[in-house]
Queue: 3 jobs
Job 1
Amino acid sequence: MRWRLWLLMAPALALLLAIFAAPLLHYLWLSTQAQSVLTGLQPQPIRAQQWLRLWNDGRFWQDTWQTLRFSAASVSLEMLLGLAVALLLNQPLRGRGLLRTISLLPWALPTTVMALGWRWIFNDPYGPISRLLAGLELPAIPFLSNPALTWMATVGADTWKTTPFVALLLLAGLQTIPADLYEAAALEGATPWKTLRRITLPLLTPYLLIALLFRLAQALGVFDLIQVLTGGGPAGSTESLALYAYLNAMRFLDFGYSATLLLGSFAILLILCGAGALIWRWSLRWQGSLR
Amino acid sequence: MAQRWRLLLVTFSVAVLLTVGALARPQIEPVSVLMPAPFADATTELVSAFNRSHPRIALSVTRGPLETEAVSDLAISSLLLGESPYDLLLMDVSWTPKYAAAGWLEPLDRWLGPDALGDLAPGAELGNAFSGQLWRFPLVADMGLLYWRTDLMAAPPRTPAELVAISRRLQREGRVPWGYVWQGKQYEGLSCVVLEVLRGFGGHWLVKNQPQLDSPAAVAAASWLQDLVRQGITPEAVANMGEPEALQLFQAGDAAFMRNWPYAWAELNKPDSPLRGKVAFTTMVSEEGEPHAATQGSWGFSMLAGSQHKAAAVEVLRFLTSAEAQKQLNLRWGYTPTRLSVFEDPELRAANPVLTDLQQALAAAVLRPLSPVYAQLSDLLYRDVNTVITGDESAPTAMRALQSNSERLLRSSGGQG
């Protein structure tokens, strides 16, 4: 009977292997080769040299830090705002359907289009923000030309675009919570804050986790927004790992190192996810022991 | 029975006739060219003229993306997949060494003959042949120009100090908010700007494959760019400015000078342009005795090594880069020619009075390093100089770091630079 089980699973397994395992293994092999424009694109084995290069590459570590900074800031903002929007859209308001549709619009726009839009909004001196500031006789804010500010501009644009996605997921979750729980809470005289903390959030946790997972995975691989909005500048301050890997592959034709970069960021992602899962488990155990 | 035999005979003879007919028909060779969108649009008429006059070749043009680097990404993706669907690529001059080193290009010497570059105007012949072979033929010339406002000054500045002095005077008098706008964003455009200033201060990017980026001249060039921003002659926003942003600011009348490519001339002189008739251009400023440099940015055709229709592709190349085609591209679309005979065409000179100025600027053309690792070299340069422009790093420190990073890159590339 066993073999039949495996036989039935085989197509799905083969698909998974072809889509995930094969490219990863190929990249692993590529990261031990010098395959670049200098080798005429022919692979030449160089053992662990690419990995050494990665370890000593300040730019890799700088981009790692910048990618993490971007992801942490934008995903936290999106989770908070997304929750707020979802709670709002879950209220029985007039014109709720219309409101829900409108609030989804930013997410429906292609990233490159919205990044071009933000590039214009941040334009100094002709963009709307600069004009407003000039109208108030305030100095212009160099959103896209000051390394201390530009990463925040990228976070702002990303938050604007993907908050609706989080809100949509959480709204679906909110609608699975039975109304009688809230009625009971109201009868018991629970404050709105208490209702949120004791009923809404615990029951929403699976949805919060899914939203967090999706958003983190996307944010850590951010490419198109950065490419269009800043090109990684100014002074390299917004370059992400994905952008650096892209540069190595498509501009520098250095495929060996590009594969190493991708695997390096994959490893960092794995470590982070592992740490996150551990912390999660510990916190559950800790909560359990309190009860 | 007899009927069936007859039917079979008819079928057979029809089949034979069809086969013979197909074989007898002249073989039509398809030739496919990838061009950036603006060039694909501009060559539409030329392409149909070619197809009319060459019944044995079916020329088709793939309209690539608008943005320069996006075209390269598309071409590279298709080349990496093995058999590229294109026979010819219209490429930026700075890509050629990389493509050639990757083994993607077919040398053109054999196809175009030893005197292929004979008719090219001075400056336009640069960057087509290297490592002893010809890799491209230029379709349009492109070079960095210094645009200046004829309504604000009688003559353009010729030295960096003059540019600063004129800017400050005009800004003090309240006639323009800014003096000089250029491309300072972290991208290829900044490398083009830096190369011009570097040469103007007497420096070089590479000499015999050795970077010269911490030389006093290179540091002076970077300091000059930084000072432009510090002194308020160039807006701080320059650190994220590409060509369109610089043009926007200049065209609005908010700056006295702009560094840009020839395409800006047509934009500035459109009927609804506020600066129509108030602009002229010249070459970049330079220190006494140093060259007024114009970074070469031309577009040209290269043939792919994997092309199955090389002879037909060469015919296409000859046709599209012919004097007649270049003349049409200039008259109708304003593209700068590369052939001397086109520059000297009396009809064209009458129709386009700035052609002489463009020819002079082209003669001042300087090349970005012809290296297979040019993309890395340039990435190091524009990233580093961008930190100088934002003021995050001092010019001497940044240029020292740039020098050692460039040296390391060229060393690890095994002197193949």
Job 2
Amino acid sequence: MKTHILTFALSFIVCLTARAELKWEQTAVELHPARGDKQAIGHFKYQNAGKTPIHFKSVHASCGCTAAQSQKDQVAPGEKGEITATFNIGDRTGTQIKTVTVETDEAANQKTVLTLKAFIPQELEISPTFVFWKQGEKPDAKTITVRAGKDFDVKHIKVTSSSPDFQTKVEEIGQGQFKIDVHPNETGRLIASTLTIQSENSPKTFYATARITTAPTLPVAPAGQKVPAAPVAAPTPPARPTAPTGQTH
Amino acid sequence: MKFSLARQALILAALSLLPGVGQAIYFRDKISWRSPIPPSEMVSVNQAREWADSAIWIDARPDEDFARNHVSGAISLNEDRWNELLPQFLAAWSPGKKVVVYCSAQSCDLAREVAERLRKEAQLPDVFVLDGGWEAWLKQKR
């Protein structure tokens, strides 16, 4: 029995060493972009530890927001290199996980998945970012809660409504928390406002939307009685100031 | 002899599990997998088509893909330009409307992320991810 186990263990080890030609320094990278950064770049270093050249067949990112590039198409034995993954932050927030799949012509390990984890600092957490009243509804105030993100010290915030049809009132709760009461002057018309939220000493701007909406839609017609979905064209949105360069929320 | 064989089989089975267990422990925080989207948050192309005008379609793909082609009437909403595009979508939304978010099936994390933000940040109900994404829509259209 000992011989069997030994044989199994040896064959397992031989298999492991035989496939380990392209050795990666790390297949997962964690990035902490600074506030205002537009991109986060991850470097995945490798070395061809085998005795034959390796060719990259493809390098493919999991989403259009990430561009992945290999320095070379072929890696000679002993040669080192890296795959660069550039993640465009855009208006993303919080923890973002993106992957890059690398395909080579190695016999044993053709596909490697590289993981890029970016922690995008979130200065203010706003909930909800959208408040609405149905047309004709009583124009009672609705509350938006604002909380300062971890590692951010926010004492005051300023809220501006793009439309005089909506009034806002900010209440400081303490410990980086705020309440914004929003109410429309009336709900008879289909009106909207962009609420601009800014914390003190920060150029970063956050947004919420307040809107008077139409009444709920009627129930759906039974299957087969209507043509495929053709959504209603979006009306012109309320004027929203252009986000300053480097916005990441 | 019989006992010995069974014991060997058990030992081998246990050994074969070791690499998997080791990887799960060692890479606990590094594995990029995400749990699948719950079926209640997904919708098939057929079902979404039946919703007709009571649904709003959102294209979560990058701007270039949307410009190339999209579901008729769909609104572009992606995280590259979230702040700019969100108001356009909210202007079309009204209570009772369902929201169908799609992206390319090959990278459908985009639709999931947009759907999550609409549910969590805008607190909209009835937000669904299109099963099979843009490719499934094209296939059904043929």
Job 3
Amino acid sequence: MSVPNLSPGSSRPGRFGRWGGRYVPEILVPALDQLELAFDSARRDPDFRAELSNLLTHFAGRPTPITRCANFLNGSGLEIYLKREDLLHGGAHKTNQVLAQMLLARRMGKKRIIAETGAGQHGVAVALAGARFQIPVRIYMGRRDCERQAPNVFRMKLFGAEVISVDSGSATLKDAMNEALRDWAASYDQTHYLVGTVAGPHPFPTLVSEFQRVIGDEARTQMLEETGHLPDAVVACVGGGSNAIGIFRAFLADSKTRLVGVEPAGQGLATGHHGATIARGKPGILHGSETLILTDEEGQILESHSISAGLDYPGVGPEHVFLGEQGRVDYVSATDTEALAAFARLSREEGIIPALESAHALAYCMRMASEHRKPEKILVNLSGRGDKDLAHVQTHLDRSQP
Amino acid sequence: MTRYPALFSRLRKSGRAAFVPFAVLGYPSPQTSLKWIRPLLEFADALELGLPFSDPIADGPLIQMASQAALAAGACRASNLAIVTAIRTEYPDLPIGLLVYANLIYRMGVDAFYATVREAGVDSVLVADVPVTEIEPFATQACAQGIDPILIAPPNAPDPTLEQIARKTRGYTYVVSRSGITGTETVAGRPSIELLTRLRDLGAPPALVGFGISNPRDIRRMLEAGADGVIVGSSLIEKARLPHDLRPYLQELRQATQR
């Protein structure tokens, strides 16, 4: 089939090559324009930057350290360095850009915040920031995700957020995003939709990427200070793709550093039960962006599958598709089983419980280690901590070891 | 030339506004969909038909439910367009509009999609998740096939956007009565007389107002504000779930379009 190219040679803002754009009902365009203007002016405003920097340092706990693994994959020739976003307040990298968007929302005079969440990490970050800023928050979360990430639902409620369980479609992240968009179409005047990843309509992919780049900026400096070298490879998991973009951006110009995005292969790419949109997706339009998506030939969106709720999404940020197309980033995948093994192994060998999402990146390192390789320094974005996953993982481990 | 200009000219002569019911193709099932649509056809000046989509972000619970039910019952492009063709054959002068989501067009290929729906007898296509800034490739192919691209004029559009919308929409202008999504949970707002006047001054084609319209009173308010007709969708789905004949309700709605 011939793949349509909707904007050949486009260099319009909001496009990464041909990918991205703004495919939303007309009613939402003024709100996106307003956000784009607020973002452009805020980035140039020293007061905004100072306030954000202050919050990141004194409220969220930046900079986060990098930790050289003492045991994990020791002896394989690989030196693994973890960028410890798991130590960030809220338990994942999500807090970085949530604080920035909260400041933007205040700047735009919005009185209410809505957000979608998959694993609940973005929802938790929005909820805690809502408490800090004393602004009402409503979180949309798929019913299935509410079940498998119950502790995060409780955390959001503790922070005073209202959590709406979404039962339509696959009852996961994509359906939560649908519902948030529907809310926003009626409430944009007073409400900011705080998108949690580098997907969605322009300006979200650009904006979220910009406010997550702090991860890579810090990590690059830390690697140089602590090892005297740039890493040979940087590895991050990719669902929507915000933690990966966040760490990759600082290294894009370092041509000797290999960048690797790890998608969820679920029960295996061949089974069709996965969320590997770059590996197996097709060009399409979902949630405002022209990007790669899981879709059937007639254009119906397919359900993704991943053991990790945060990667269980049938789309991906358009910038990732562009970086893959350019050959700058390699996109690979790891299965549920591999992620669970990595989850258990990092816990046992390093005393660090990774989020199931981040465990996909570690699983890929385990695969690298099993192949014969020259010594390499690998920087892994440990994008979140796994406390939220404990009950869910326990069920799976009990099932596999009766 | 599509069937809209002749329709609006007929309506002007008879002193009426357009009554345009909406149905989801393939709902309740591919086999029973045409039967569901039949009563609508008895009262319709024009018809709007939605291609069911898995993720209809511009639609409220009723149209979501109908879309999911249609897909679950096996509705596909071929079965949906076969229904359009059947209606076209029986009603050669009835303007038929399609309401779709961008991915349904994109996956088929933009040119192939418009050619295919033209073949089925469609007059216009509205893409719910494509605003005027992204419409070009869709509108170009639509026009090449003699199909009217329909754009939505929302209450919050700034002047330059409204100018673009007025210039690019053909056949009619879909004016939304209020912000939000389709559905009867939120009552229809009244489109400002100012918005409808601005559109007329910009030379936009006739204005059909939709979103949340469910009774004769809503319809009369729209006509007083200057609308050329109304689109009614969700409330038909809601009413059709009751075991009553839909006809008296349709009759009542149609009567309200008498000026």
